[in-house]
């Protein structure tokens, strides 16, 4: 049977402000990309999400970012490699404290936002992320875009490299994500997201924004937790996947 992991970005709040419905999404997804305080999240939120994930058997991933709370980690930044590596390790370590306190551990690492897109092509920044992961835990899988420099360098360093696809983001013909500043970058039609999810899981293909067929072989499928109706959409995606003969399970 075909299987796929279903992940979502969680813990994306700060203080009294909450963006994602963490508790309800954790009843649907198999992996949780938890904000580590650099683009969103704080100590209390990280601890709460780790406890809730542990209770439900959901894998915890460190969603590392540029230090950019004001821009939600979506602004382009130039960070010296040594500094970026240290900050990646710092974020993983902070989340690991709360994961272990909840009786589990950080199971993987995934960059967020501008950093995620940067390390698709930028070898220096990708190498810094890999160095940060190695500094924190040299066994951690790294989640990223298929064909990215990040996954290539992670594999060379001996880290498990896990390819990821996006059901609710538009693709270019080259298999990269359409930048969020462009029209149509986010797929908002729920039925389209559901159908794309099945196509990605079963056939490893998705239609680009221009309509071209793009091959995207992935082990994990991401749904963004900060979109309107995210919980109900995640439930629909999981139900349709299972109805289509796809087993939804964590990749680690």
Automatic annotation (TrEMBL):
Which residues constitute the signal peptide according to the record?
none
Under catalytic activity, the entry for this protein gives: 5-oxo-L-proline + ATP + 2 H2O = L-glutamate + ADP + phosphate + H(+)
Q: Keywords of this protein's UniProt record, alphabetized?
A: ATP-binding, Hydrolase, Nucleotide-binding
Q: Which GO terms describe its biological process?
A: carbohydrate metabolic process
**Per its UniProt entry, what is the enzyme's top EC class, as one word?**
hydrolase
Q: Which superkingdom does the taxonomy of this entry point to?
A: Bacteria
One Gene Ontology molecular-function label: ATP binding
Q: What is its EC number?
A: 3.5.2.9
- Keyword match Nucleotide-binding: yes
Q: What does this protein do?
A: Catalyzes the cleavage of 5-oxoproline to form L-glutamate coupled to the hydrolysis of ATP to ADP and inorganic phosphate.
Q: What does the subunit comment say?
A: Forms a complex composed of PxpA, PxpB and PxpC.
Q: Which NCBIfam families match?
A: PRK05406.1-3, PRK05406.1-5
What family is this? Belongs to the LamB/PxpA family.
Q: What is the protein name given in its UniProt record? A: 5-oxoprolinase subunit A
């Amino acid at each position: 049977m075909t299987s796929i992991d279903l992940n979502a970005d969680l813990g994306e709040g700060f203080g009294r402000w909450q963006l994602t419905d963490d508790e309800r999404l954790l009843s649907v997804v198999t992996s949780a990309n938890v904000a580590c305080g650099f683009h969103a999240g704080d100590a209390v939120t990280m601890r709460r999400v780790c406890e809730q994930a542990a209770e439900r058997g959901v894998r915890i991933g460190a969603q590392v970012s540029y230090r950019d709370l004001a821009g939600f980690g979506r602004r382009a930044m130039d960070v010296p490699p040594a500094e970026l590596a240290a900050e990646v390790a710092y974020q993983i370590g902070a989340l690991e404290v709360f994961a272990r306190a909840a009786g589990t551990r950080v199971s993987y690492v995934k960059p967020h936002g501008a950093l995620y897109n940067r390390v698709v092509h930028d070898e220096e920044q990708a190498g810094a992320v890999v160095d940060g992961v190695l500094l924190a835990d040299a066994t951690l899988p790294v989640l990223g875009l298929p064909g990215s420099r990040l996954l290539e360098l992670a594999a060379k360093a001996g880290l498990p490299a896990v390819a990821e696809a996006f059901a609710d983001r538009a693709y270019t013909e080259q298999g990269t994500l359409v930048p969020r500043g462009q029209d149509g970058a986010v797929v908002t039609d729920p039925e389209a997201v559901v159908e794309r999810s099945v196509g990605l899981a079963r056939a490893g293909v998705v239609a680009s924004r221009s309509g071209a067929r793009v091959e995207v072989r992935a082990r994990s499928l991401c749904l963004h937790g900060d979109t309107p109706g995210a919980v109900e959409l995640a439930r629909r995606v999981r139900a349709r996947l299972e109805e289509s003969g796809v087993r939804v399970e964590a990749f680690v």
